[in-house]
Write a structure and sequence with these properties.
It contains 21 helices and 14 strands. It has 505 residues and is an alpha/beta fold. It is elongated.
Length: 505
Amino acid sequence: MTSAQPATLGALHRTGLHLPRTVKAEMRANLVAALAHCEHPAALFPGLVGYADTVIPQVINAILAGHDLLLLGLRGQAKTRLARSLARFLDPAVPALAGDPLRSHPLAPVGAVATGLVEIHGDDTPVIWLDRADRYGEKLATPDVAVADLIGDIDPIRANREGWDLGDLRSVTFGIVPRTNRGIFCINELPDLAPRIQVALFNILEEQDVQVRGIPLRLPLDLMLVFTANPEDYTSRGQIITPLKDRIGSQVLTHYPKTRAEGVAILAQEAHLPTAAGVEPVVPALFDELIEEMARQARASEYVDAKSGVSARLTVAARELLHANVLMRGLRTGERRPRARLVDLPSVLPALTGKIELAYEGEQEGPLKVGWHVLGEAVKTLWAERLPAVLKEDEDERDAGPWKTVLRWFAAGNRVELSDRSTDAEHAAALAAVPDLAHAAEQLLKHPPAEAALWQEFLIEGLFQGGALAREDSARGLVYSDLLANLMTRKERKDRKGRRGTGEG
Protein backbone atom coordinates (compact mmCIF):
# COMPACT_ATOMS: atom_id res chain seq x y z
CA MET A 1 0.00 0.00 0.00
CA THR A 2 1.34 3.46 -0.92
CA SER A 3 0.94 6.57 1.20
CA ALA A 4 -1.66 7.87 -1.27
CA GLN A 5 -4.01 4.93 -0.68
CA PRO A 6 -6.64 5.35 2.05
CA ALA A 7 -6.18 3.10 5.07
CA THR A 8 -9.70 3.39 6.50
CA LEU A 9 -13.25 3.18 5.24
CA GLY A 10 -13.90 6.85 5.94
CA ALA A 11 -10.78 7.98 4.08
CA LEU A 12 -11.70 5.81 1.13
CA HIS A 13 -15.23 7.18 1.05
CA ARG A 14 -13.99 10.76 1.08
CA THR A 15 -11.85 10.22 -2.03
CA GLY A 16 -14.89 9.43 -4.15
CA LEU A 17 -12.68 6.97 -6.04
CA HIS A 18 -12.37 3.19 -6.17
CA LEU A 19 -16.10 2.64 -6.45
CA PRO A 20 -17.31 -0.97 -6.47
CA ARG A 21 -17.54 -2.81 -9.79
CA THR A 22 -17.56 -6.48 -10.71
CA VAL A 23 -14.32 -8.21 -11.55
CA LYS A 24 -15.53 -8.92 -15.10
CA ALA A 25 -16.44 -5.26 -15.65
CA GLU A 26 -13.02 -4.29 -14.29
CA MET A 27 -11.21 -6.68 -16.65
CA ARG A 28 -13.29 -5.53 -19.62
CA ALA A 29 -12.47 -1.86 -18.96
CA ASN A 30 -8.76 -2.54 -18.55
CA LEU A 31 -8.68 -4.70 -21.68
CA VAL A 32 -10.43 -2.02 -23.74
CA ALA A 33 -7.86 0.54 -22.57
CA ALA A 34 -4.99 -1.84 -23.35
CA LEU A 35 -6.31 -2.61 -26.83
CA ALA A 36 -6.35 1.08 -27.63
CA HIS A 37 -2.61 1.33 -27.00
CA CYS A 38 -1.18 -1.80 -28.63
CA GLU A 39 -0.47 -2.59 -32.26
CA HIS A 40 -1.58 -6.22 -32.06
CA PRO A 41 -3.73 -7.95 -29.42
CA ALA A 42 -1.14 -10.73 -29.11
CA ALA A 43 1.21 -8.19 -27.49
CA LEU A 44 -1.10 -8.25 -24.45
CA PHE A 45 -0.20 -11.90 -23.84
CA PRO A 46 3.62 -12.02 -23.79
CA GLY A 47 5.19 -15.45 -23.83
CA LEU A 48 2.30 -17.15 -25.64
CA VAL A 49 3.80 -18.11 -28.99
CA GLY A 50 1.65 -19.32 -31.89
CA TYR A 51 -1.71 -18.14 -30.56
CA ALA A 52 -1.81 -14.66 -32.08
CA ASP A 53 -4.43 -15.43 -34.73
CA THR A 54 -6.21 -18.37 -33.14
CA VAL A 55 -6.54 -18.58 -29.35
CA ILE A 56 -5.86 -15.01 -28.22
CA PRO A 57 -8.67 -13.35 -30.23
CA GLN A 58 -11.15 -15.82 -28.71
CA VAL A 59 -9.90 -15.15 -25.19
CA ILE A 60 -10.18 -11.41 -25.76
CA ASN A 61 -13.76 -11.85 -26.95
CA ALA A 62 -14.56 -13.87 -23.83
CA ILE A 63 -13.26 -11.11 -21.55
CA LEU A 64 -15.15 -8.43 -23.46
CA ALA A 65 -18.32 -10.53 -23.25
CA GLY A 66 -17.88 -11.06 -19.50
CA HIS A 67 -17.72 -14.83 -19.82
CA ASP A 68 -16.23 -17.51 -17.65
CA LEU A 69 -13.74 -19.51 -19.69
CA LEU A 70 -12.90 -23.15 -20.48
CA LEU A 71 -9.51 -23.78 -22.11
CA LEU A 72 -9.65 -27.16 -23.82
CA GLY A 73 -6.55 -28.82 -25.23
CA LEU A 74 -3.92 -31.53 -24.94
CA ARG A 75 -1.12 -31.39 -22.40
CA GLY A 76 1.69 -28.93 -22.89
CA GLN A 77 -0.36 -26.33 -24.78
CA ALA A 78 0.17 -23.44 -22.30
CA LYS A 79 -3.37 -23.55 -20.90
CA THR A 80 -2.28 -22.72 -17.36
CA ARG A 81 0.07 -19.98 -18.54
CA LEU A 82 -2.78 -18.46 -20.52
CA ALA A 83 -5.06 -18.57 -17.48
CA ARG A 84 -2.44 -16.87 -15.32
CA SER A 85 -1.90 -14.15 -17.91
CA LEU A 86 -5.49 -12.97 -17.44
CA ALA A 87 -4.53 -11.36 -14.12
CA ARG A 88 -2.80 -8.58 -16.05
CA PHE A 89 -6.26 -7.14 -16.84
CA LEU A 90 -7.11 -6.64 -13.18
CA ASP A 91 -6.57 -3.26 -11.53
CA PRO A 92 -3.07 -2.83 -10.07
CA ALA A 93 -4.57 -2.48 -6.57
CA VAL A 94 -8.09 -2.60 -5.13
CA PRO A 95 -9.37 -1.93 -1.58
CA ALA A 96 -10.76 -4.67 0.68
CA LEU A 97 -11.96 -4.85 4.26
CA ALA A 98 -9.20 -6.01 6.60
CA GLY A 99 -10.22 -9.17 8.44
CA ASP A 100 -12.93 -10.20 5.99
CA PRO A 101 -12.24 -13.66 4.50
CA LEU A 102 -14.45 -12.78 1.51
CA ARG A 103 -12.38 -9.64 0.83
CA SER A 104 -15.42 -7.43 0.44
CA HIS A 105 -15.16 -4.02 -1.12
CA PRO A 106 -15.28 -1.56 1.80
CA LEU A 107 -18.17 0.33 0.18
CA ALA A 108 -20.14 -2.88 -0.55
CA PRO A 109 -19.63 -5.35 2.33
CA VAL A 110 -20.76 -8.94 1.71
CA GLY A 111 -21.75 -11.37 4.47
CA ALA A 112 -22.08 -11.15 8.22
CA VAL A 113 -18.34 -10.79 8.89
CA ALA A 114 -17.97 -7.76 6.63
CA THR A 115 -21.12 -6.00 7.83
CA GLY A 116 -20.11 -6.72 11.43
CA LEU A 117 -16.72 -5.09 10.91
CA VAL A 118 -18.34 -1.95 9.48
CA GLU A 119 -20.91 -1.78 12.29
CA ILE A 120 -18.22 -2.05 14.97
CA HIS A 121 -15.60 0.30 13.54
CA GLY A 122 -17.58 2.64 11.28
CA ASP A 123 -15.38 5.03 9.31
CA ASP A 124 -12.34 3.69 11.15
CA THR A 125 -12.76 0.22 9.65
CA PRO A 126 -9.27 -0.78 8.38
CA VAL A 127 -8.79 -1.11 4.64
CA ILE A 128 -6.15 -3.24 2.94
CA TRP A 129 -5.09 -3.17 -0.70
CA LEU A 130 -4.91 -6.23 -2.91
CA ASP A 131 -2.55 -6.39 -5.87
CA ARG A 132 -3.02 -8.56 -8.94
CA ALA A 133 -1.11 -11.53 -7.53
CA ASP A 134 -3.38 -11.52 -4.45
CA ARG A 135 -6.44 -11.81 -6.66
CA TYR A 136 -5.50 -14.89 -8.69
CA GLY A 137 -6.17 -18.34 -7.25
CA GLU A 138 -5.51 -21.76 -8.72
CA LYS A 139 -6.25 -25.37 -7.86
CA LEU A 140 -5.24 -28.59 -9.59
CA ALA A 141 -8.30 -30.84 -9.66
CA THR A 142 -7.89 -34.34 -8.31
CA PRO A 143 -10.54 -36.97 -7.54
CA ASP A 144 -10.05 -36.50 -3.79
CA VAL A 145 -10.81 -32.76 -3.76
CA ALA A 146 -13.76 -32.10 -1.44
CA VAL A 147 -16.32 -29.33 -1.19
CA ALA A 148 -14.53 -28.18 1.96
CA ASP A 149 -11.31 -27.62 -0.02
CA LEU A 150 -12.92 -25.44 -2.65
CA ILE A 151 -15.93 -23.88 -0.90
CA GLY A 152 -15.47 -24.37 2.82
CA ASP A 153 -16.82 -26.24 5.82
CA ILE A 154 -19.15 -25.45 8.73
CA ASP A 155 -17.64 -25.34 12.19
CA PRO A 156 -20.49 -26.53 14.47
CA ILE A 157 -18.46 -26.07 17.66
CA ARG A 158 -17.76 -22.41 16.90
CA ALA A 159 -21.37 -21.87 15.86
CA ASN A 160 -22.65 -23.37 19.09
CA ARG A 161 -20.16 -21.40 21.21
CA GLU A 162 -21.08 -18.08 19.61
CA GLY A 163 -24.79 -18.85 19.30
CA TRP A 164 -24.82 -18.62 15.50
CA ASP A 165 -27.06 -20.57 13.18
CA LEU A 166 -25.23 -23.19 11.12
CA GLY A 167 -26.32 -21.33 7.98
CA ASP A 168 -24.64 -18.11 9.18
CA LEU A 169 -21.53 -17.39 7.11
CA ARG A 170 -19.69 -16.63 10.36
CA SER A 171 -19.90 -20.37 11.09
CA VAL A 172 -18.04 -21.23 7.89
CA THR A 173 -14.32 -21.80 7.41
CA PHE A 174 -14.02 -20.72 3.82
CA GLY A 175 -12.14 -22.67 1.14
CA ILE A 176 -9.93 -21.39 -1.60
CA VAL A 177 -12.68 -20.22 -3.99
CA PRO A 178 -14.45 -17.77 -1.64
CA ARG A 179 -11.05 -16.51 -0.48
CA THR A 180 -10.37 -15.51 -4.08
CA ASN A 181 -13.56 -13.41 -4.18
CA ARG A 182 -13.20 -10.35 -6.42
CA GLY A 183 -10.56 -12.10 -8.46
CA ILE A 184 -9.84 -14.87 -10.96
CA PHE A 185 -9.97 -18.50 -9.93
CA CYS A 186 -8.61 -21.26 -12.16
CA ILE A 187 -9.28 -24.99 -11.82
CA ASN A 188 -6.85 -27.09 -13.81
CA GLU A 189 -7.95 -30.47 -15.22
CA LEU A 190 -11.62 -29.89 -14.47
CA PRO A 191 -12.84 -33.41 -15.48
CA ASP A 192 -10.86 -34.86 -12.57
CA LEU A 193 -13.30 -33.25 -10.13
CA ALA A 194 -16.01 -35.54 -8.82
CA PRO A 195 -19.48 -34.70 -10.22
CA ARG A 196 -20.77 -33.53 -6.83
CA ILE A 197 -17.94 -31.00 -6.62
CA GLN A 198 -18.73 -29.77 -10.11
CA VAL A 199 -22.35 -29.32 -8.99
CA ALA A 200 -21.09 -27.00 -6.23
CA LEU A 201 -19.25 -24.93 -8.84
CA PHE A 202 -22.36 -24.91 -10.99
CA ASN A 203 -24.37 -23.54 -8.07
CA ILE A 204 -21.84 -20.76 -7.57
CA LEU A 205 -22.03 -19.83 -11.24
CA GLU A 206 -25.79 -20.00 -11.49
CA GLU A 207 -27.44 -19.50 -8.10
CA GLN A 208 -24.64 -18.08 -5.94
CA ASP A 209 -25.47 -20.59 -3.24
CA VAL A 210 -24.10 -23.96 -2.19
CA GLN A 211 -24.86 -26.72 0.27
CA VAL A 212 -22.26 -27.74 2.85
CA ARG A 213 -23.22 -30.75 5.00
CA GLY A 214 -26.77 -30.24 3.82
CA ILE A 215 -26.86 -26.62 5.05
CA PRO A 216 -27.63 -24.11 2.30
CA LEU A 217 -25.23 -21.16 2.25
CA ARG A 218 -25.75 -17.98 0.29
CA LEU A 219 -22.43 -16.99 -1.29
CA PRO A 220 -22.74 -13.88 -3.49
CA LEU A 221 -19.24 -14.24 -4.89
CA ASP A 222 -17.77 -12.02 -7.58
CA LEU A 223 -15.41 -14.16 -9.65
CA MET A 224 -14.15 -14.87 -13.10
CA LEU A 225 -13.84 -18.65 -13.26
CA VAL A 226 -11.33 -20.23 -15.65
CA PHE A 227 -11.16 -23.97 -16.23
CA THR A 228 -8.67 -26.07 -18.15
CA ALA A 229 -9.33 -29.57 -19.45
CA ASN A 230 -7.78 -32.20 -21.68
CA PRO A 231 -10.19 -33.78 -24.23
CA GLU A 232 -8.75 -37.19 -23.39
CA ASP A 233 -9.93 -36.77 -19.79
CA TYR A 234 -13.54 -37.08 -20.90
CA THR A 235 -13.10 -40.81 -21.37
CA SER A 236 -10.03 -41.79 -19.36
CA ARG A 237 -10.71 -40.10 -16.02
CA GLY A 238 -14.03 -38.29 -15.96
CA GLN A 239 -16.15 -35.70 -17.64
CA ILE A 240 -17.47 -32.20 -17.23
CA ILE A 241 -21.08 -32.40 -16.14
CA THR A 242 -23.39 -30.94 -18.75
CA PRO A 243 -25.05 -28.28 -16.55
CA LEU A 244 -21.67 -26.84 -15.57
CA LYS A 245 -20.30 -26.88 -19.11
CA ASP A 246 -23.48 -25.19 -20.30
CA ARG A 247 -22.92 -22.32 -17.84
CA ILE A 248 -19.34 -21.63 -18.95
CA GLY A 249 -19.67 -18.79 -21.43
CA SER A 250 -16.74 -19.49 -23.75
CA GLN A 251 -14.82 -22.64 -24.65
CA VAL A 252 -11.50 -22.01 -26.39
CA LEU A 253 -9.52 -24.77 -28.10
CA THR A 254 -5.75 -24.59 -27.68
CA HIS A 255 -3.27 -26.30 -30.00
CA TYR A 256 0.37 -27.19 -30.54
CA PRO A 257 2.62 -24.89 -32.61
CA LYS A 258 1.39 -24.74 -36.19
CA THR A 259 4.89 -24.34 -37.63
CA ARG A 260 8.35 -25.54 -36.71
CA ALA A 261 9.49 -21.93 -36.34
CA GLU A 262 6.87 -21.33 -33.64
CA GLY A 263 7.97 -24.46 -31.82
CA VAL A 264 11.60 -23.37 -31.96
CA ALA A 265 10.62 -19.97 -30.55
CA ILE A 266 8.87 -21.67 -27.62
CA LEU A 267 11.87 -23.91 -27.10
CA ALA A 268 14.29 -20.98 -27.03
CA GLN A 269 12.03 -19.05 -24.67
CA GLU A 270 11.45 -21.81 -22.13
CA ALA A 271 14.71 -23.75 -21.95
CA HIS A 272 16.87 -23.13 -18.89
CA LEU A 273 20.35 -24.04 -20.04
CA PRO A 274 22.88 -25.26 -17.45
CA THR A 275 26.17 -23.43 -17.14
CA ALA A 276 29.58 -23.98 -15.59
CA ALA A 277 32.52 -21.68 -15.01
CA GLY A 278 34.84 -21.58 -17.99
CA VAL A 279 32.68 -23.70 -20.34
CA GLU A 280 30.28 -22.20 -22.89
CA PRO A 281 28.57 -24.90 -25.01
CA VAL A 282 27.90 -23.91 -28.62
CA VAL A 283 24.66 -25.39 -29.96
CA PRO A 284 23.93 -24.42 -33.61
CA ALA A 285 20.37 -23.68 -34.76
CA LEU A 286 20.14 -27.04 -36.52
CA PHE A 287 19.64 -28.76 -33.17
CA ASP A 288 16.65 -26.62 -32.23
CA GLU A 289 15.10 -27.54 -35.57
CA LEU A 290 15.87 -31.23 -35.07
CA ILE A 291 14.43 -31.28 -31.55
CA GLU A 292 11.24 -29.48 -32.55
CA GLU A 293 10.86 -31.70 -35.61
CA MET A 294 11.33 -34.71 -33.35
CA ALA A 295 8.26 -33.61 -31.35
CA ARG A 296 6.28 -32.99 -34.53
CA GLN A 297 7.16 -36.44 -35.83
CA ALA A 298 6.16 -37.98 -32.49
CA ARG A 299 2.73 -36.31 -32.71
CA ALA A 300 2.22 -37.86 -36.13
CA SER A 301 3.76 -41.26 -35.35
CA GLU A 302 1.69 -44.43 -35.40
CA TYR A 303 3.69 -45.57 -32.37
CA VAL A 304 2.54 -42.65 -30.18
CA ASP A 305 -0.93 -42.22 -28.72
CA ALA A 306 -2.20 -39.15 -30.57
CA LYS A 307 -5.04 -38.58 -28.08
CA SER A 308 -2.54 -38.14 -25.27
CA GLY A 309 -0.54 -35.57 -27.18
CA VAL A 310 3.16 -34.71 -27.06
CA SER A 311 3.81 -31.82 -24.72
CA ALA A 312 5.89 -28.81 -25.70
CA ARG A 313 7.75 -29.54 -22.47
CA LEU A 314 9.38 -32.46 -24.32
CA THR A 315 11.36 -30.15 -26.58
CA VAL A 316 12.37 -27.92 -23.69
CA ALA A 317 13.65 -30.86 -21.65
CA ALA A 318 15.42 -32.32 -24.70
CA ARG A 319 17.19 -29.02 -25.42
CA GLU A 320 18.34 -28.79 -21.81
CA LEU A 321 19.68 -32.37 -21.88
CA LEU A 322 21.55 -31.74 -25.12
CA HIS A 323 23.14 -28.62 -23.70
CA ALA A 324 24.07 -30.53 -20.53
CA ASN A 325 25.75 -33.29 -22.54
CA VAL A 326 27.88 -30.78 -24.43
CA LEU A 327 28.67 -29.04 -21.16
CA MET A 328 29.78 -32.33 -19.61
CA ARG A 329 32.10 -32.99 -22.56
CA GLY A 330 33.64 -29.54 -22.17
CA LEU A 331 34.28 -30.19 -18.49
CA ARG A 332 35.90 -33.55 -19.31
CA THR A 333 38.06 -32.37 -22.21
CA GLY A 334 38.91 -28.91 -20.91
CA GLU A 335 37.54 -27.16 -24.00
CA ARG A 336 36.08 -23.73 -23.32
CA ARG A 337 33.58 -23.70 -26.20
CA PRO A 338 32.66 -27.32 -27.04
CA ARG A 339 30.34 -27.64 -30.02
CA ALA A 340 27.23 -29.81 -30.14
CA ARG A 341 27.28 -32.71 -32.58
CA LEU A 342 24.68 -35.18 -33.84
CA VAL A 343 26.23 -37.95 -31.78
CA ASP A 344 25.01 -35.96 -28.75
CA LEU A 345 21.38 -36.53 -29.77
CA PRO A 346 20.99 -39.85 -27.91
CA SER A 347 21.29 -37.77 -24.73
CA VAL A 348 17.82 -36.31 -25.42
CA LEU A 349 16.09 -39.70 -25.42
CA PRO A 350 15.32 -39.66 -21.66
CA ALA A 351 13.22 -36.53 -22.25
CA LEU A 352 11.37 -38.17 -25.10
CA THR A 353 10.74 -41.60 -23.60
CA GLY A 354 9.40 -40.07 -20.39
CA LYS A 355 6.94 -37.72 -22.06
CA ILE A 356 5.14 -39.80 -24.67
CA GLU A 357 2.31 -42.27 -24.25
CA LEU A 358 2.75 -45.19 -26.62
CA ALA A 359 0.03 -46.70 -28.79
CA TYR A 360 -0.23 -50.49 -29.00
CA GLU A 361 2.29 -50.63 -31.84
CA GLY A 362 4.69 -48.49 -29.83
CA GLU A 363 4.35 -50.72 -26.79
CA GLN A 364 5.45 -53.64 -28.93
CA GLU A 365 8.54 -51.75 -30.06
CA GLY A 366 9.40 -50.19 -26.69
CA PRO A 367 9.94 -46.53 -25.79
CA LEU A 368 13.66 -46.43 -26.62
CA LYS A 369 13.16 -47.84 -30.11
CA VAL A 370 10.31 -45.39 -30.71
CA GLY A 371 12.60 -42.58 -29.54
CA TRP A 372 15.26 -43.56 -32.07
CA HIS A 373 12.57 -43.80 -34.74
CA VAL A 374 11.25 -40.26 -34.28
CA LEU A 375 14.80 -38.91 -34.14
CA GLY A 376 15.45 -40.60 -37.47
CA GLU A 377 12.27 -39.20 -38.97
CA ALA A 378 13.34 -35.71 -37.89
CA VAL A 379 16.68 -36.12 -39.66
CA LYS A 380 14.93 -37.39 -42.81
CA THR A 381 12.59 -34.39 -42.84
CA LEU A 382 15.38 -31.83 -42.52
CA TRP A 383 17.42 -33.72 -45.14
CA ALA A 384 14.52 -33.59 -47.61
CA GLU A 385 14.29 -29.81 -47.16
CA ARG A 386 17.97 -29.30 -47.94
CA LEU A 387 19.30 -32.17 -50.06
CA PRO A 388 18.34 -34.52 -52.90
CA ALA A 389 17.19 -38.05 -52.12
CA VAL A 390 19.94 -40.34 -50.88
CA LEU A 391 19.08 -43.05 -53.41
CA LYS A 392 16.93 -42.92 -56.50
CA GLU A 393 14.85 -45.93 -57.44
CA ASP A 394 17.05 -46.87 -60.38
CA GLU A 395 20.36 -46.13 -58.64
CA ASP A 396 22.81 -48.47 -56.93
CA GLU A 397 24.07 -47.07 -53.63
CA ARG A 398 27.70 -47.12 -54.76
CA ASP A 399 26.87 -44.94 -57.78
CA ALA A 400 24.60 -42.53 -55.91
CA GLY A 401 25.09 -39.03 -57.27
CA PRO A 402 27.09 -36.67 -55.00
CA TRP A 403 27.61 -39.44 -52.42
CA LYS A 404 29.47 -41.75 -54.82
CA THR A 405 32.96 -41.28 -53.41
CA VAL A 406 31.75 -41.37 -49.81
CA LEU A 407 29.82 -44.62 -50.24
CA ARG A 408 32.64 -46.33 -52.16
CA TRP A 409 35.00 -45.48 -49.30
CA PHE A 410 32.67 -47.21 -46.85
CA ALA A 411 32.22 -50.13 -49.29
CA ALA A 412 35.98 -50.66 -49.19
CA GLY A 413 35.58 -51.75 -45.55
CA ASN A 414 36.23 -48.40 -43.87
CA ARG A 415 34.30 -47.27 -40.80
CA VAL A 416 33.71 -43.99 -38.97
CA GLU A 417 33.37 -44.02 -35.20
CA LEU A 418 32.01 -40.83 -33.66
CA SER A 419 31.94 -40.25 -29.92
CA ASP A 420 30.40 -37.70 -27.59
CA ARG A 421 33.54 -37.89 -25.45
CA SER A 422 36.15 -36.91 -28.04
CA THR A 423 37.43 -33.37 -28.39
CA ASP A 424 36.20 -31.18 -31.22
CA ALA A 425 39.54 -31.65 -32.99
CA GLU A 426 39.34 -35.45 -32.70
CA HIS A 427 35.73 -35.37 -33.93
CA ALA A 428 36.66 -33.26 -36.97
CA ALA A 429 39.62 -35.58 -37.72
CA ALA A 430 37.38 -38.66 -37.72
CA LEU A 431 35.10 -37.01 -40.28
CA ALA A 432 38.01 -35.69 -42.36
CA ALA A 433 39.07 -39.29 -42.99
CA VAL A 434 36.07 -39.74 -45.30
CA PRO A 435 37.09 -38.56 -48.78
CA ASP A 436 34.90 -35.99 -50.51
CA LEU A 437 32.65 -35.61 -47.43
CA ALA A 438 33.79 -32.08 -46.64
CA HIS A 439 33.49 -31.04 -50.30
CA ALA A 440 29.96 -32.44 -50.58
CA ALA A 441 28.82 -30.69 -47.39
CA GLU A 442 30.32 -27.37 -48.46
CA GLN A 443 28.90 -27.47 -51.98
CA LEU A 444 25.44 -28.78 -51.16
CA LEU A 445 24.72 -27.11 -47.82
CA LYS A 446 26.65 -23.81 -48.02
CA HIS A 447 27.26 -24.00 -44.27
CA PRO A 448 29.24 -21.52 -42.16
CA PRO A 449 32.88 -22.61 -41.82
CA ALA A 450 32.52 -23.04 -38.05
CA GLU A 451 29.80 -25.66 -38.61
CA ALA A 452 31.70 -27.77 -41.14
CA ALA A 453 31.99 -30.85 -38.91
CA LEU A 454 28.31 -30.67 -37.92
CA TRP A 455 27.06 -30.72 -41.51
CA GLN A 456 29.50 -33.45 -42.51
CA GLU A 457 28.08 -35.51 -39.66
CA PHE A 458 24.58 -34.61 -40.86
CA LEU A 459 25.42 -36.05 -44.29
CA ILE A 460 26.62 -39.34 -42.80
CA GLU A 461 23.57 -39.67 -40.52
CA GLY A 462 21.32 -38.82 -43.46
CA LEU A 463 22.95 -41.51 -45.59
CA PHE A 464 22.18 -43.99 -42.85
CA GLN A 465 18.57 -42.80 -42.52
CA GLY A 466 18.25 -42.99 -46.31
CA GLY A 467 19.30 -46.64 -46.38
CA ALA A 468 22.78 -46.25 -47.84
CA LEU A 469 24.87 -46.90 -44.71
CA ALA A 470 24.69 -49.04 -41.59
CA ARG A 471 24.93 -47.70 -38.04
CA GLU A 472 25.66 -49.39 -34.73
CA ASP A 473 25.89 -48.15 -31.16
CA SER A 474 29.26 -48.13 -29.45
CA ALA A 475 30.03 -47.51 -25.76
CA ARG A 476 29.68 -43.73 -26.08
CA GLY A 477 28.88 -43.05 -29.68
CA LEU A 478 27.89 -44.33 -33.10
CA VAL A 479 29.76 -46.38 -35.69
CA TYR A 480 28.91 -45.99 -39.40
CA SER A 481 29.87 -48.64 -41.95
CA ASP A 482 28.93 -50.11 -45.31
CA LEU A 483 25.40 -51.48 -45.29
CA LEU A 484 26.13 -54.70 -47.19
CA ALA A 485 29.26 -55.50 -45.21
CA ASN A 486 27.38 -54.89 -41.98
CA LEU A 487 24.61 -57.26 -43.00
CA MET A 488 27.13 -59.96 -43.89
CA THR A 489 28.94 -59.51 -40.56
CA ARG A 490 25.69 -59.81 -38.65
CA LYS A 491 24.79 -62.97 -40.55
CA GLU A 492 28.17 -64.53 -39.75
CA ARG A 493 27.79 -63.69 -36.06
CA LYS A 494 24.32 -65.20 -36.03
CA ASP A 495 25.56 -68.36 -37.76
CA ARG A 496 28.45 -68.76 -35.28
CA LYS A 497 26.07 -68.27 -32.38
CA GLY A 498 23.76 -70.91 -33.83
CA ARG A 499 26.58 -73.41 -34.23
CA ARG A 500 27.71 -72.85 -30.63
CA GLY A 501 24.14 -73.42 -29.47
CA THR A 502 23.98 -76.82 -31.22
CA GLY A 503 27.48 -77.86 -30.10
CA GLU A 504 28.98 -77.67 -33.61
CA GLY A 505 32.33 -76.23 -34.51
